[in-house]
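Hello, quick one for you while I still have it in my head. I'm working through a protein record and want to make sense of it properly. Would you mind checking whether the tokens look sensible for this chain? I owe you a coffee for this, so here goes:
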Amino acid sequence: MKVFRSFFLFSVFLFFLSGLYADEHTLSNVPKDFLGTYMPVQMEMLVKEYMSYEKALNTIAESHYDILSLEENICYSQIRFSDGYAVEAKDFEKWSFVKRGEERYILDENGLSYHRISTKKGDYEAYAEKILNIIFADAVHNKNISVEGANVTIYGKQYHFNLWPSYVDDYGALVLSGCVLKIEGVSANIYGTERVGHWESKRTDEIIQTIPLFYWNDENYDRLRVYKYSDSKSSLKLLRNLVYAKHGYKFKSDDLQKIFSEFDWYKPNASFSESSFTNWEKSVISDIQRYEAE
């Protein structure tokens, strides 16, 4: 009987402790149509600005929750996508919920905003796919590049995107299956890596592959700013010929013809004429030639 009484009291004690934990992290009045996985709005903006996931992640490191997984009575947030914890109820009470059509947004206790990227809880693949679709938004117009979930296929080789890369160096755009993709000029280079610690790696000088014209499609074409590439002869050459490619010029150079024919926007034009260039395009070519002559 004493053993039973002791066990009963111990069980009550454990229940009391679990109740304390639940009170601290258990949420009430969670809007049911806001359940799902969220990422910081600023993260989306910074990835687009920097074209580098790592730089964006480190920029918001101490201001935002990295990711939110809102469930019916609890909200998890991963710290650098490894050690998880639950948002406390006292903080959750200060949150605001915003609908914009089908889109859902959360404002946390500090007024920072998060955008729902999936209606599933803890959907890391949706987060990874969102980042990849930003970085490769133009590159997927290359017929040899595609994004699916957390994977990107580049010229027949599939790479997996790591949300938490444990990488130290000069902010590569992405860590992909032990490699580093870094945008340089109008191309992207895929570098090898080497281990420098138990968890950390760094980029080597070995270029495994170069992807030309990495992020120029029709949407971004008229945003081309030549001065950004003034110190790269190879980038200037590609940009100058990009104008011709946009009008369907058939290149005499096999290398250039191969590069541009891989993009879905390239349409050969038997009636090509430089007279079809706009004044803006003529100005771009003039600027490029000036930089090339320097």
